[in-house]
């Protein structure tokens, strides 16, 4: 009778110990649970800093607020906030990926604005690209101006010379080139492609930008299993079946640090709670044995 009871007790203890371990093991998956739309791709800031509590700062704050508000009803918009003096003018825009719903666009822009504010603390200008949206602001106007400089590029590992795979890749890129509109998707077999222009470009400028991005993608990424080419005002990405994830997921690992911290704290709290339950349980068991 006593032996049977001890056995049940140790089984329960083991179960508790296991759930405790599982909570800790689940921390990494917790941290990557942010949706792929919101994960970080790249960011950059202007060198010059503005004066804290200046008119520029308050204009910048109203610009950023306008971007976030606008993203609830439009996938692209631009704003110019005029100050009392010309040097206080701030220009800004955002662009959501064409397939995002309005709520997702709004969430994405809100995150991008928060992140760019942290990354570019007191900088006159900043730009940040998440998987699902792009935001940029500056004190010099860039609205409606073409920009084909390479801002960020990433090539996956080479798949080696595979004529079929590369043929499909080239066909997908060609398809993106001949399609129309600011948001383009295509696929062939295991190859997926995506192109997006910023909404301030005309149809002709968008086309021009995408042709440039596709050319750079082919020449720079060669036979890579995926490629990302972000120019100033447009980007093109492709992914083959050889890539570990689709192009929408590459940068998940570099997702929001704040979220990771939050997830770790939640994990630790759960762990601590379990330790307390476990200890209370042990005490109770030993207490019972002591009787
Ligand atoms: C932007 O701000 C910086 C720093 O205040 C200044 O040096 C630069 O001239 C400004 N540019 C324009 C176009 O106003
Ligand atoms: C900026 O926004 C205004 C008002 O929404 C619009 O009329 C204008 O065409 C936009 N400019 C660019 C360059 O997109």
From TrEMBL:
Database matches in InterPro entries: Cell2Cell_Antifungal, GNK2, GNK2_sf
Gene3D superfamilies: Gnk2 domain, C-X8-C-X2-C motif
Pfam families in UniProt: Stress-antifung
Primary site of residence: other
Transmembrane regions: 262-282
Family: Belongs to the cysteine-rich repeat secretory protein family. Plasmodesmata-located proteins (PDLD) subfamily.
Subunit (UniProt): (Microbial infection) Interacts with Grapevine fanleaf virus (GFLV) 2B-MP.
Protein name (record): Gnk2-homologous domain-containing protein
Organism: Citrus clementina (Clementine)
